[in-house]
Design goal:
Blueprint: H1 12-17, H2 33-39, H3 46-65, H4 67-76, H5 79-82, H6 85-104, H7 109-137, H8 143-175, H9 179-214, H10 222-241, H11 250-280, H12 282-310
Helix pairs in contact: 3-10, 4-7, 6-7, 6-9, 7-8, 9-11, 10-11
GO molecular function: L-lysine transmembrane transporter activity
Family: Belongs to the laat-1 family.
InterPro entries: LAAT-1, PQ-loop_rpt
Length: 311
């Protein structure tokens, strides 16, 4: 089972282990019903079952990963000071190429819907970044800016709600192509997978540099990176767990998943460095917070001193 953020060919296991049924016999006799209904996979052994469950946990972690940062940016209002635009740009580029890989390699509908959700959350983060950057750099409050941001988010939501249905309907045409064309399209999809992995790896370096430059991680949510670490770790585990169940070539299976394994494990390692920054700069964050809390306490004392001087 593969996540949409690092999509492998999730139907490979079923394709390798599948044998043509006898005439009049159901396609998946001993398979798990809910997996067959939700993911269209025939899972009939414990290894494949564990792989699917771990893969779903990975997908769920990725679905939730950007939401804490969206809330943190809304609460803090200084996202342009905390987040690196390079981080957001490479993350968005990775999701776009990952989406292209999903489409060209005919991934499952649930994966296409999931990667569209990733793109949507990326657009929200980028919109927040640009909104607060313009707002904080301007000396006047502009209601037009709020309306433009609201209209942009509404339009993006409507487009992204309709997009999965259109893509799933059009993906049928990819399956009816000639074998030569279908093979070239699939190769292009896997190339997009390698590009997505490169973009995901590149996304961490601008944020690492930003944190180092500020000597602080204030304004960024650690849950963003913690959930990403859980998602990447469980994705790699879901690929490894299914290996004992393969009756075909394990080498071919690994090669098909290699791009996303490199990306997921590489990002996992880089996120450990981000975690180290959160630990090292924790004192700086607490010092800044305590200074902000002390400011309101000083102002009344100054007012009292001024009143006494006047008397």
């Amino acid at each position: 089972m593969a996540t949409a953020r690092f999509p492998g060919k999730s139907v490979d296991v079923a394709a390798v282990n599948w044998t043509p049924p006898a005439l009049g016999r159901p396609l998946c006799v001993n398979g798990t019903p809910w997996i067959l209904y939700l993911l269209e996979e025939c899972v009939d052994n414990v290894w494949e079952y564990c792989s699917v469950v771990i893969g779903l946990i990975s997908m769920f972690c990725f679905l939730l990963s950007t939401l804490p940062q969206v809330y943190e940016a809304y609460r803090n209002g200084k996202v342009e000071e905390a987040m690196s635009f390079g981080f957001l740009f490479f993350l968005f580029s990775g999701d776009l190429t990952s989406f292209a890989g999903c489409y060209l390699t005919s991934q499952l509908p649930i994966q296409i819907v999931t990667v569209v959700f990733y793109i949507f959350t990326d657009l929200i983060l980028i919109s927040q970044f640009l909104y607060y950057k313009i707002k904080n750099s301007s000396s006047r409050k502009s209601p037009v800016l709020k309306w433009l941001c609201f209209m942009w988010c509404s339009a993006a939501t409507l487009v992204l709600l309709a997009l999965p249905k259109l893509i799933i309907d059009n993906s049928v045409s990819l399956d009816t192509q000639s074998p030569t064309t279908s093979k070239s399209v699939e190769i292009t999809g896997y190339i997009c997978g390698y590009l997505a992995s490169i973009f995901y790896l590149c996304s961490r370096f601008p944020q690492l540099y930003k944190n180092f430059q500020r000597q602080s991680t204030e304004g960024t949510s650690y849950l963003l990176f913690a959930l990403a670490m859980m998602g990447n770790g469980t994705y790699g585990l879901s690929v490894i767990v299914v290996l004992p169940a393969l009756r075909g070539s394990k080498q071919t299976f690994i090669i098909k998943h290699l791009a996303w394994l490199i990306g997921s494990l590489g990002v996992l390692i880089l996120d450990f460095f981000v975690t180290a920054q959160f630990v090292m700069y924790r004192k700086n964050n607490s010092a800044k917070s305590s200074m902000l809390l002390r400011v309101p306490e000083v102002e009344p004392l100054l007012c009292e001193e001024e009143e006494l001087s006047l008397l």
